[in-house]
Write a structure and sequence with these properties.
Elements (H helix, E strand, L loop, with lengths): L4 E5 L20 E2 L2 E2 H11 L4 E6 L4 H6 L4 H7 L9 H9 L1 E6 L6 H7 L1 H4 L4 E4 L3 E5 L4 H12 L2 E7 L9 E9 L2 E9 L10 E9 L2 H7 L11 H11 L2 E5 L2 E5 L3 H18 L3
Parallel strand pairs: 1-4, 1-6, 4-5, 8-12
Antiparallel strand pairs: 2-3, 6-11, 7-13, 8-11, 9-10, 9-11, 10-12
């Protein structure tokens, strides 16, 4: 079964980038010449996920406008060499469908995913957190997860090793290895203290989820910070069935932080320079 839908939780305020995000969604902040959210949509499409569902909030209209026609702009640059700069976004507009709903309260990632249920329905789907910009080795991270799902037909999360003093920033898993880089999850803790972490394998913002996750989220009580944590729901799903964690191949940039955003900008700028004709 090919997974065709991908959910983008994008309702957060982006307070770490104030004042830049006072009137501009953090998801449209540019990494070189493309907004952050566009990299994620391109990754989803490359994995065969062409139905793009976004959970947004107040002040996020720029997300919808970016993936729509801009008649005045396109008329002004029509026939000029600047028109080629729109080729990447035009591809997405032609090959993807976009749907949107709003998260009325910021009650955690689990709540954001549950808010997207009407856009997803009862089928497996991807989830991309645009803050985590991933440059996969060969295939994108979502394509890598899709291959794991095709073999095992269960929820899959992307993981990477992080320094022990940073585990408190992430959901952290414990599990048994079933293939190289692939683990069957036995435990999962949201933002543990370093001494309480079951490992240093941290979940990053790429998931493939089976639709029963919505029913589990409905019965998941608020956890750390009073929010509905996807980590808590996935742990319950793992105990009832099976959830896998895959150590993806590639590089991740935490663009929710200033340091990661600058590192991603430098990385993609150097790539664009190396791709220019000599």
């Amino acid at each position: 079964m090919m997974i065709k839908k991908c959910l983008f939780p994008a309702a957060g305020y982006g307070t770490r980038f104030l004042p830049a995000t006072k009137a501009m969604p953090k998801e449209v902040m540019p990494i070189v010449d493309k907004p952050l959210i566009q990299y994620g949509v391109e990754e989803a499409l490359d994995a065969g996920m062409y139905d793009i569902a976004m959970v947004t909030g107040r002040g996020k209209r720029a997300l919808e406008d970016h993936f729509d026609v801009s008649y005045e702009l396109e008329h002004q640059i029509s026939g000029t060499d600047k028109e080629a700069r729109l080729s990447s976004i035009r591809r997405l507009m032609e090959e993807c469908t976009f749907s949107y709903t709003r998260q009325k309260e910021m009650l955690g990632l689990g709540h954001a995913i549950l808010t997207g249920e009407p856009l997803i329905g009862r089928e497996p789907f991807g989830v991309i957190l645009a803050d985590d910009l991933c440059d996969g080795e060969g295939d994108g991270v979502m394509s890598q997860l899709a291959r794991v799902y095709a073999k095992y037909r269960c929820s899959v999360v992307a993981i990477e090793e992080v320094p022990e003093d940073e585990v408190s920033k992430y959901g952290v898993i414990a599990g048994s290895s079933i293939e190289d880089g692939l683990y069957m999850i036995s435990d999962m803790v949201e933002k543990p203290a370093p001494e309480d972490a079951p490992s240093n394998l941290a979940i990053i913002g790429r998931y493939i989820l089976t639709p029963d996750i919505f029913d589990i989220l409905r019965e998941t009580p608020p956890g750390k910070g009073g929010e509905i944590q996807i980590t808590d729901a996935l742990l319950l799903q793992a105990r009832r069935n099976m959830v896998l964690a895959y150590k993806f191949k590639g590089t991740r940039f935490d663009c929710g932080s200033m340091e990661g955003f600058v590192a991603a900008t430098n990385h993609y700028y150097q790539r664009s320079r190396s791709a220019e004709p000599a």
